[in-house]
Amino acid sequence: MTGVNDLIDRPTEELPSPAVLIDLPTLRRNIAEMAKLADGFDVALRPHWKTSKCAEVGRLQLEAGAVGLTAATAAEVEALVVAGFEDVFWAYPPVGPHRIATALRAARQARLIVGVDSLASAEPLAEAAAAAGLTIEVRLEVDTGLGRTGVDPDEALDIAWRLAHTPGLVLEGVFTHEGHVQGVGADPERRTELGTAAGRLLAEVAERMRSDGLEIPSVSVGSTAGARSAPSVAGVTEARPGTYVYGDENQVAIGTIDPADTAMTVLSRVISTERGETVLVDAGIKAMSSDGSMHGDGRIGTVVSGSDGVSDGEGVLATGHEEHGFLRGSSPKRVGELIRIRPNHACGLTNMHSHVFAVENGVVVDIWPVLGRY
Q1: Is the dihedral of CA 117, 215, 227, 301 positive or negative?
Q2: Whole-angstrom distance, CA of residue 89 vs CA of residue 177
Q3: Is 297 helix (H, G, I), strand (E, B) or coil?
Q4: Deepest of 25, 228, 235, 325, by most Cβ within 10 A of its Cβ?
Q5: Phi, psi of 359 (to 5 degrees)
């Protein structure tokens, strides 16, 4: 039986499908360009690692100047620490015994900053840290418009004071996820307006805290859609984009990423043409995820150009069952023919797979395990 590592140095058309392909030149270019953008804004770059979940990608980001990485789940934090990463921001409330235990273990091995948005989410961690003889850095999440987690800006100062005086914790800064910037779609002026407003609001909250005697070293914003606006605000110190590293169809749809800058595609084979104009392929929702489309048409992926000879490139993956994808709008296909599909959302797709294939010029260069999956 052929092992997965035996596929290194093979052409992509020999891979078992569906397979996640990461184009190495595009990946490296994306990493370099975001590092340059952050440097131009004079902010630290701490990419969100949930997009790749690959240690190899994280190392490339650090080599390009990132100060550390951001994680969302306990499994991601564990994976990063085990892989030797030494500076991790866990941007998620540490609620529940498992998350608290993970935070304590990680804090003993690396620098760990934990995101909280209330005393209720912080106090159990503080009690456990104090009992273990540890002091854990925390950032207070502020809601700047997304309406998800995050304290109301008007209540942030009071919560920050309480956090700063809670044994077992050190208040390290404030952060936000300006995810609502993506929601405006293909309107660059509105995106810039909302991203700038989010950065400005967070910086103002931080300044109020400093004026009241608190030390707030970090003022951290984070999204790919807002990466060219929120970090540009004076007073912001850090940016945490994630999707940029691979790119995806949703970012292409709203205009934040050029199609040429998408490094991730899924290699898929036609398995049936018995439905006429609707072609069945082997990439269903278990391969693509069912993340929604910013196109508004329900697609789960978009067929991309086959300039490398893999496909002729048109049509959309209109819907999917578990192992069946319904390809529509394409030219006639043959059973066994290969296509490449750009997923709606890179982060969701990554979590569906155990490994990805790093490719260059149509050849597999390396195979990277996906770590920290649910």
Answers
A1: negative
A2: 13
A3: coil
A4: 325
A5: -125, 155
- Cβ count near 297 (within 10 Å): 8
For 130-179, the pLDDT digits (tens) are 999 999 999 999 999 999 999 999 999 999 999 999 999 999 999 999 99
Burial 40-70 (b: 16+ CB within 10 A, else e): ebebbbbbbbbbbbbbbbbebbbebebebbb
Please give the helix or strand (H or E) that residue 269 lies within, else none.
strand 264-275
pTM tops 0.90, yes or no: yes
Helix (H) or strand (E) holding 355: strand 355-360
- Taking the C-alpha atoms of residue 319 and residue 35, their distance in angstroms, rounded to an integer, is 36
Q: Which two tokens stand for residue 102?
A: 């993970």
DSSP H helices, the chain, are 24-41, 55-63, 74-82, 97-109, 119-131, 156-164, 188-211, 249-254, 285-288, 346-350
In the chain, the domains with their CATH numbers are 4-20+258-369 (2.40.37.20), 24-246 (3.20.20.10)
Name the helix (H) or strand (E) containing 44. Answer: strand 44-45
Q: Are 226 and 38 in contact (CB under 8 A)?
A: no
Report d(CA 30, CA 290) in Å as an integer.
25
Strand pairing class (69-71; 87-90): parallel
How far, in Å, CA of 118 to CA of 151, rounded? 7
Q: Is the CB of residue 330 less than 8 Å from the CB of residue 279? A: yes
